[in-house]
Specification:
heterodimer, A: mainly alpha, 13 helices, elongated, B: mainly alpha, two-stranded antiparallel sheet, 15 helices, 73% helix, globular
């Protein structure tokens, strides 16, 4: 347990990871209090659909009523960014949860039992890893029909193999340890050995690192949704807000930055969200990397 | 001799992977109805008029296994189906759009590798100084940047503020006419190379002007990635005994860093060339979409938007095969560069 305390102290002492923690906490607060920060208008049924007044395509600049302005189709950028935080956590947490579960189950079966089972599972991961991830995800979304669910299925499908491999490697390392032999000798079932002895001693670092991949998952989801392969029009999602702004990159002659808010603001939300997780992940990697430790 | 048997073994291992990949792609096609699947077998627009005949011809109402063998046979003979968004067979579309993407890659890859290694070495050589912290923060921010957003911001600045200085697309209108005229011979369809071969200055300049922003967009994230890897690899090398020896015998620091440490630190970086390929393949889809740069990434985007299933699956298959081959080459190179790698060891 002192390991964890040591780690926590390191994270808070390092200004970069401390900033990462602060950024993530701020986003978590935004997500939790979204209904208070950006209240859903009366009579609006689904809070995840951004309210819009009128259908005019031209974005309108920030004003009292729309503090970040409105984007193409008069969608309120502030509302979209705030509720988009919820969408981001939703996508990130669901995908990483599914991926980790699949990775842990298949990885530990593969590493612990070895033999034919290991061979089969590893060859399956080979097949998935043979594709550049975003391209495979694109193909899956296109095949399933664009929707939020398709994005999550696609991202889970392309990311589980690497986690299964990581966890398999971790299990392989501890499999021959004396305490595993001992519990086997005491007659513990394979299930018990894996769950009570092998996993707890093998995978915590992997688990921590993996959960910090939420940033990367959200980035990939935003890219898919920017490409137009994802959420329905008007759903509160950062990637889509950026794609709305695509036609408004350059303003009229004499005022080229007229619509700067439409593209800049949603992009900054994505950047900071991903940055928060990456800052934390980077610090963890340094702490866990035995080659760089205590030097 | 050992190397040869290693290569043969690796080539044999490719077969089950590629077989699995094709089975997976085929599995995706089975989500669709026979009428939708029929476009996977069409190589001539006239066939579109009579889909039931196509279903009959390729047995699309037959059991799955016989369909799989038919499909695999078609794929192996080069028939990947009909891409409706561009109105040509998928295989032809790949060859049509590939040169543009290659052009991007030709410029981006050296830039990424050179800058990544340079920044990584510098950061490691100045560990825990301002330079190191600066490059590290730069790398994390670069690594977190949404590529598509970066591209749009670059366009906003260089196309908007500096009126049309660095425009989207591949060539301007006049240059496009010149390129397609009779006196301009298209050797490779890679604009810059063709322009040099034709000794045509204006086309070369115009092509370069259109390349700058896409190349930057494509590079930033990957430079950050290689830089991070290079930094930690360098730090490890700098802690080694031979570096201490080099310093002890009085070599200048520059020589120690650039000759002794860096050469050894480069070895782990080579292993990720395979990764770099995948990152570029993913990156071109987004980059080409933003800049309306008509390469295979742009085509794949159009295909995905319009549910052009043969095109998107053909594109995925094409990329998977390339990726697998690139990884093979990287692994073989690795055994040449680092003799410590045991050839007979685990092949992963």
């Amino acid at each position: 347990m002192s390991d964890w305390k040591f780690m926590a102290r390191q994270l808070i002492r390092n200004p970069l990871s401390l900033m990462g923690i602060i950024i993530i906490v701020v986003f978590a607060i935004i997500a939790i209090f979204a209904p208070l920060i950006a209240p859903t208008p009366e009579g609006h049924r689904n809070p995840y659909m951004i309210p819009h007044e009128g259908y005019s395509v031209t974005p309108r600049p920030p004003s009292e009523e729309h503090i970040f302005g409105t984007t193409q189709g008069q969608y309120d950028i502030f509302y979209g960014c705030i509720w988009g935080t919820r969408s981001a956590f939703h996508i990130g947490l669901v995908v990483i949860g599914v991926v980790l579960l699949t990775g842990i189950v298949l990885g530990s079966l593969s590493g612990y039992f070895g033999g034919l089972l290991d061979e089969v599972i590893m060859r399956i991961t080979d097949i998935f890893l043979a594709f550049p991830a975003l391209i495979l995800a694109m193909a899956i979304v296109a095949a399933l029909g664009p929707s939020l669910k398709s994005i999550m299925i696609a991202l889970a499908t392309v990311s589980w193999p690497s986690y299964a491999r990581l966890i398999r490697g971790d299990i392989l390392q501890v499999r021959e340890e004396d305490y595993i032999e001992a519990s086997r000798g005491l007659g513990a079932s394979s299930m018990r050995v894996i769950l009570r002895h092998a996993l707890p001693n093998a995978i915590y670092p992997t688990l921590v690192m993996a959960s910090l991949d939420i940033g990367a998952i959200v980035l990939a989801a935003a890219a898919l949704s920017f490409l137009g392969l994802g959420v329905p029009e008007g759903y509160a999602d950062w990637g889509q807000l950026v794609s709305f702004a695509r036609n408004w990159i350059v303003g009229p002659p004499g005022d080229p930055l007229k619509y700067w808010y439409a593209v800049t603001i949603p992009g900054l939300f994505i950047l900071f969200f991903v940055l928060g997780w990456n800052l934390l992940g980077d610090a963890f990697r340094d702490i866990l990397d035995p080659r760089l430790a205590r030097r | 001799m050992e190397l040869r048997s290693y290569i043969i073994r690796r080539l044999l291992l490719l077969i089950p992977v590629l077989f699995g990949v094709s089975m997976f792609i085929f599995g995706i096609t089975m989500l669709f109805s026979p009428t939708q699947r029929a476009t996977l077998y069409i190589s001539d627009p006239r066939q579109l008029a009579d889909l039931p005949a196509v279903i009959e011809l390729y047995g699309l109402d037959q059991p799955v296994w016989s369909q799989f063998t038919t499909w695999l046979g078609q794929v192996l003979s080069g028939n990947l189906g009909w891409s409706k968004v561009v109105g040509m067979p998928v295989w032809e579309a790949i060859w049509h759009y590939l040169p543009a993407t290659l052009e991007l890659a030709i410029f981006a890859t050296p830039a990424i590798i050179f800058l990544g290694i340079l920044f990584g070495t510098t950061a490691a050589a100045h560990k825990d100084t301002l330079v190191d912290h600066g490059t590290r923060v730069g790398a994390i921010v670069g690594w977190s940047l949404p590529t598509f957003w970066l591209g749009l911001i670059l366009l906003m600045v260089f196309y908007g503020i500096f009126r049309g200085f660095l425009p989207p697309d591949r060539l301007s209108v006049q240059m496009n006419i010149m390129v397609n005229s009779a006196e301009f011979i298209r050797y490779t369809h890679i604009n810059t190379i063709d322009a040099i071969l034709n000794l045509n200055g204006p086309v070369l300049l115009d092509a370069l002007r259109h390349l700058i922003l896409p190349v930057i967009t494509l590079s930033v994230v990957n430079v950050a990635f290689i830089m991070r890897l290079m930094r930690s690899s360098m730090l490890e090398a700098l802690g080694k005994g031979y570096v201490l020896t080099a310093r002890a015998k009085g070599l200048p620091e520059r020589v120690v860093v650039n000759k002794h440490a860096r050469r050894n630190a480069l070895i782990p970086v080579i292993t990720i060339s395979g990764y770099l390929f995948a990152a570029l393949a993913n990156g071109v889809v987004i980059t080409e979409t933003i800049f309306i740069y008509k390469g295979i990434g742009w085509w794949a985007w159009q295909a995905a938007l319009n549910l052009d299933i043969p095109a998107i699956l053909g594109f995925a298959l094409f990329n998977a095969v390339l990726f697998v081959l690139v990884n093979l080459v990287v692994d073989i190179l690795y055994t040449r560069v680092d003799p410590r790698v045991r050839l007979g060891g685990t092949v992963q």
